[in-house]
Amino acid sequence: MKILIVDDDRSARRALVRILVAMGDADLREAASLEEARREVAAGDLEVALIDLRLDEDGRNRDGLTLVSELRKHTNVVPIVVTASHDMAEVRTAMRLGAYDYIMKDELSDETVLPILQSLRSTRALEREVLNLRVRHGAEASAGLVGTSPAMQHLRDIIQRISLSERPALVTGPTGSGKEVVVRAIHALGRNPSEPFLDLNCAAFPAALIESQLFGHERGAFTGADKKHDGYFTAVGAGTLFLDEIAELPLDLQAKLLRVLEAHTYRPLGAANPLKFRGRVVAATHADLEERVAKGQFREDLWYRLNVLEVQVPSLEERRGDIPALVAHFAASQDRPLQFTAEAMEILQMAQWPGNVRQLRNFVDRLAVFCPDTVVTAESLSSVPQASRSRKSGPPLESPRSPLSELARAVLRMSDEEGDKLALMEQVLIQEALVLADGNKTAAARLLGVHRKVVARRADREGDGATDGTTGDASVGTPRGSDDLLSRRLKD
């Protein structure tokens, strides 16, 4: 233990040194003034400072108090007061400034000094153990937050910030996006990670049962209540209560939940007195709560209370770049090792995953069972049974789309007000071919891979002014309005 002794009296410092050497591992430093003490603090990784309150013969000197205050505000060094003064008002001032304990000089001995330092050592060891536990819990929880996309980096930052608060929080996002993983990370990184984490799906129980599950009940509170039951609000202690599918909570229970969040008290069914709620509520939903509020299906005041701290979990579509990392993460947890070829990974990354991360994880689980080889190829992907939501729904996997396919999809996404998109696309192709061929229909037909008569017939119908010869000005009389319109739409 690295200890600094601060006293203007050399004999007092010597007396403390004789006591402290009995610790065996004490690394002792000395300072006779406030300035010397400041230099020692700045130079070394000190743990404790034994400080005389008056570092001068002048009775008005209060440099010791100044040092106590500075150590508490700007360092991790623990100050302990050692004083000859019996002015307890001065000692109390030192304790208010952050002194860990105090020792009277006329009582200096092994019995008075060493137990204080041993207690401090035990406290520090416990603090390090708790910190390591929190770091381990946080690492385990964050392990489920796979990916380095901007969306995931932003999500991690939000989780870190929200975990420092004790306020209620709301986690939103599409089904299968990993909302429970986010809630568990908030709990693990929070102030009470060793306290219970309890989850209740509000859509899985009838209203009467949910109330009993949440609030608990006394014996005889209702027919069949033959014994006392502690609800989730009691069992969670100072931990985290995760209310999944909060949008499905009945309106009357929403009012009671709001009361718990505002007053931090709850009353079990049949109980005479309210109990204090010490935990934190984190709710989650894939529903649009604002829309539910507008329809009168969700209490507006509860929504405002939950929506103060909101975490929006991105869909897999918003973080496609994370798919390779997610696949590798899910594959590593399988009983048999799986490796993916570059083509197979590309197909997975381009595939449609309406069920988000959950659907991707389930597919990797099926691969581990049905794939004949440990090396997953493009061919083996198509041989794995798909989990369809209905008989009409096709498999989620598609081959990577070509640039032409992407262009076609962009055209199809244009407004219906543009009319016949097929005719528009044909017109623009012919116009562009004529531009590249300098108005030569034969050359334009060669570019399009069609007969010259096809180009001539379409071009004549539009009156583009193109020629049959080897030269021509396709820009003369060529209607470019549709072409420019299509370009603008595709850019949008």
Molecular structure report:
The protein starts with a strand and ends with a helix. It is elongated and about 115 Å long. It is 48% helix and 11% strand. The protein contains 21 helices and 14 strands. The strands form four sheets. Strands 2-1-3-4-5 form a five-stranded parallel β-sheet, sandwiched between helices. The chain has a five-stranded parallel β-sheet with strand order 7-8-11-6-12. The chain has a two-stranded antiparallel ribbon with strand order 9-10. With 492 residues, it is α/β, with parallel strands linked by helices. The chain has four domains: 2-124, Rossmann fold; 143-312, 3-Layer(aba) Sandwich (Rossmann fold); 318-382, Helicase, Ruva Protein, domain 3, CATH 1.10.8; 403-491, no CATH class. It has helices at residues 10-20, 34-43, 63-74, 88-97, 110-142, 150-163, 179-188, 207-215, 232-235, 251-263, 289-294, 300-306, 323-332, 342-350, 356-370, 378-382, 403-412, 421-436, 441-448, 452-462, 481-491, and strands at 2-6, 27-31, 48-51, 78-83, 101-104, 169-172, 197-201, 240-244, 265-266, 275-276, 280-285, 310-312, 339-340, 375-376.
Tell me, briefly, the overall form.
elongated
Share of residues in strands:
5-15%
Total strands: 14
| Total count of domains | 4
Gyration radius, to the nearest Å? 36 Å
Structure in a nutshell:
The protein has 492 residues and is of the alpha/beta class.
